[in-house]
Structure formats: C-alpha cells, structure tokens
C-alpha cells in the first residue's frame, strides 16, 4: 500500500468506517454486505469507485457498457479499489420522444445526486450516445469528484451493396431517393438498417462520435479512448485501463476542475473543427463549461475554431466511417497533427496524468487519406460561423458540410459572393413542415429559405433535431437536394446540411424568429455573419408589440420543471439554477437517520 493511500481518508469512510459514529456506520454498512462485499473490503481503506452505467436495453447505443463493466471492475480491483455500478437514467437519441435532449439535464441531475449522496470516492463515466457524454461530464463537473470517461465506441462500419452506409447520414440520403421514387419502402428500410451492424454508437462523425472525441480532447478520457469500435478487443483493454486509472486519480486527487480549464475547452473546439464535428457540440460544451465554472461564449466557436482545417475524412463531412478513423489514429492522430502545427494548448492537463502535448507527441496520421496531414486538409476554415441579426442573437452554421453545389447555387452570385437574398417560408414545427412542404401554393423555389420555429429548448421541449428540412419533392427531382434552412432547433450531427441552427433566443420566448412571416425577404451575408429579415423597422416593432407567447402544453411533470428552468442553446440549454452549484461532493450530506 502506497503512502498516498495509507495517509488518505476517503469520503466513503464517512459512511462505512467512522469509529466516532458506530451506530450510523453499522446502519450504512450492513445492507452492502448482503451482496458481494465483506466488512474487510468496505472497511479496509480502499476507495470506492462508482461506475455510472448508461447502457441498458433501452439504450442500445451504450449497451456495450453492460459487458465492458466487467473489465472496468477488474481494473478497479487490480488497482486496489472497490467498484460499485449504478444505473443512469436512459438517454437514447433515436428512441426517446419528444427529444433525448430533454433528458440530458435529467440524467445530469440524477448523477449529481448520486455522487453527492452515496459513498463514492471517484467515478467512471460510461458514455456513448449523443447526450450521455455531456450529461456525464456536466454531472462530474458539478460534483468535482475524481472522474474518468470510458467511451463505448462506435459500431462497426455499415455496408449496403458494396458501399459504406453510415448512421443517420444514410437516412437523409435515402429519404431523398424515396422522395424521388428511386427506391421503395423495403429498400429504404434495408439500407438504413444496414448502417447498424453491431453494438456501439453511431459510426459517422455525428454527435456521439463528436462528443466522445470532445471528452478525449478535453482530457477527460485516456488517450485513444474515443474512437475504438465497440466490438474490438482494444475496447475491452481500454475498459480495464480506465478502471485502473480511476483508482489512481482518487489517490492523486485529480479532479474535473484540474482538467476542465479554458485551455481544455479551446482544445476541444479546435479538434471539433478538424474532425468536422457536430453542431450539437457547442451547446453541450457550453453546458459542461458552465457547470465547471469556465467562461465560454458561443462566439468562441468562431474565433477559436473557424480557421482550423478539416482533417478527418469521415461522414457526413467526408466519406469514411468509424473503423477507418480508428485505424488512421483516431483523436490522438488529429491532436498530434494539430499540436505539430501549433494549434493546441499542449500544456493542458489530461486524466492520464500527462499533459496534452506529452500524450499526443508521437501521434500522426497513419492513413493520410482518412486523416489528412495538417497542411494537406480536406478544406481550410472548417469551423462554425456564428451569425446574428434581427432574427436571433446567435445561430451556428457548420461550414465543413457546405457542398460545392450548395455554394454555387446560393453563395456564388456574381458581385455578391457569400450573400443570398431570398423569400422566407416559415413552418411552425415539424408537423407543419411535413404537412405543407409539398404544397405548391407556398411557391418554394431556388430563391427560398426555409424556416422552422417553436423547436428550441422551451418550445419543443428539449430542442429538436429538425432544422435540416428537405426541399419539396419536385425540387429534389429537379436536382436541388438542399435549400438554406434556419431554425431555433438543432439538427442531427449526422446531417450533411449546412443549416443555420441553434438560433437563440428561441421564438417561444420572444426571439426574433417569432415575428417572421412567410413572404418576408431575408438576407444572408456570410461575409458579415448576419441574417436579417428585410422588414421595415416600424412594421417589425408593430409585429413585436402584437405578439403573445404561445400556450405550452406540458405532458409530464419533468417537461414543466425543465421548461421553467432551462436556458437557451447559446448558453448550453442548462437548468439555469444548477449552474451556481460547485464541488457538491465536497459538501458532505447529513446522516440519514
Ligand atoms: Fe445513439 Fe447515434 S443514436 S449514438
Ligand atoms: Mg440525433
């Protein structure tokens, strides 16, 4: 037993080994003995490591953790700790209605309460599906207990008729083929189902792969953790190593507040640009930063990240999937390329005990077609633009997915490069969009921008991934696959649509989108990063004065609590009152009897 351990009194001993309070110690310990533990273990001066289990039958993207946890426990035991697994409220992106986003803050709250109220000294955060990663990191930031991320890893690559088919991305492509009448329902189903060939999360660079990459870029997982496909043996080895390291960080007292610094968040933003990451990363990182007490503004995504080049040739911005990304070196190769080009804060601390610079020093791309060298990128300036104007204070645009065709049609008018003036067509949520998009009387053509509102955090509730609206069937048949789209909701990280989204403040709380009408002229200017309704000031003010907030229908108690306390996407969509809480694991709760 090391000195560190001999001298250390663990938080869990306040429950299980407190000679000053034998009555409570007995009460706390007896029930934990009726399962796998003995008094010798629980009173032997060993740290207790929680395993926050996000996998279940309801959460298939994370179900690999149900199997990985055995290797995590072995690692914890071999390093001299005691593992205790506990369940996390399920968050499944494609299964949860009305949105999984609604549940991110609920899982966060649940994790904070567990880490505060139970005899836990450190925690392994199991992550995978989109919102599981931010929920776990937000909770760890609020608790500030030693914590380490274990990603579940992506599914194996999907194949259909000899071609790669990636999670989500295949859905958007196949919907267009269905609209054009090129495939039937059965082929549509087969193509989409072929994209999910094994356990694991989405195999594209959607929100799941992005957020696990963000956890690694922040320094919260072991180097190389995020990209290992779920079924690979290396994933099992990573689970074991993560369990071992979880014990060491308790002994070293290495906490999220030591890792989650401003520099760490800037590193994550730069990595996000280089991987062509999801537009969901900004609200999730904003939320983690706010719970960690780090200043981060939505505009930092442009100032820090815009001029970083796209290196990862992975769908939806590129062509490959998770297996190729892993073989090419994954996130360490991306970070190694960025570091060599002077584009990372190399001094930032990681959970491995090494700095970022030390952790990725020897890493470069192992396949320059899949991960490009820094000076031979897929495209320059691959980060997000942050737009503003009279329709919102801020909204994001992902530039790495702007296709040549989109640029030529909408952004390359002679004499007005990057400027597009058009007529607005406004939808009140996805039901309205689906009901009316093919209505010829709307007059949707190439000079149209599609708007959707009422789909933000308060409006939906939870903010829905619906902004990547497909054009009318007639336009798709004429070869126009995308129109510019704008909304106060989000879109899937697997979408290749360069939408303008996450508009904050949202319409139902009185954001500018609320006053837009179908037929208004709007002007998008990517040189100035503005989007404005070209409505005379007086008329605009009159619409504002006449506006009344819509009546919201809550379907569950949580929806009402969430809507009462949630902030806007630009601020992370946090429960605002929760952002004031810091280091809650330190503030020991009272005895319960
Ligand atoms: Fe769960 Fe994509 S739907 S990871
Ligand atoms: Mg999604």
Automatic annotation (TrEMBL):
<keyword id="KW-0408">Iron</keyword>
<keyword id="KW-0411">Iron-sulfur</keyword>
<dbReference type="InterPro" id="IPR056740">
    <property type="entry name" value="ILV_EDD_C"/>
</dbReference>
<feature type="domain" description="Dihydroxy-acid/6-phosphogluconate dehydratase C-terminal">
    <location>
        <begin position="369"/>
        <end position="572"/>
    </location>
</feature>
<dbReference type="Pfam" id="PF00920">
    <property type="entry name" value="ILVD_EDD_N"/>
</dbReference>
<feature type="domain" description="Dihydroxy-acid/6-phosphogluconate dehydratase N-terminal">
    <location>
        <begin position="46"/>
        <end position="358"/>
    </location>
</feature>
<dbReference type="InterPro" id="IPR000581">
    <property type="entry name" value="ILV_EDD_N"/>
</dbReference>
<dbReference type="GO" id="GO:0046872">
    <property type="term" value="F:metal ion binding"/>
</dbReference>
<protein>
    <submittedName>
        <fullName>Dihydroxy-acid dehydratase</fullName>
    </submittedName>
</protein>
<comment type="similarity">
    <text>Belongs to the IlvD/Edd family.</text>
</comment>
<dbReference type="GO" id="GO:0051536">
    <property type="term" value="F:iron-sulfur cluster binding"/>
</dbReference>
<dbReference type="InterPro" id="IPR037237">
    <property type="entry name" value="IlvD/EDD_N"/>
</dbReference>
<dbReference type="InterPro" id="IPR020558">
    <property type="entry name" value="DiOHA_6PGluconate_deHydtase_CS"/>
</dbReference>
<dbReference type="Pfam" id="PF24877">
    <property type="entry name" value="ILV_EDD_C"/>
</dbReference>
<keyword id="KW-0479">Metal-binding</keyword>
<dbReference type="InterPro" id="IPR052352">
    <property type="entry name" value="Sugar_Degrad_Dehydratases"/>
</dbReference>
<dbReference type="InterPro" id="IPR042096">
    <property type="entry name" value="Dihydro-acid_dehy_C"/>
</dbReference>
<keyword id="KW-0456">Lyase</keyword>
<dbReference type="GO" id="GO:0016836">
    <property type="term" value="F:hydro-lyase activity"/>
</dbReference>
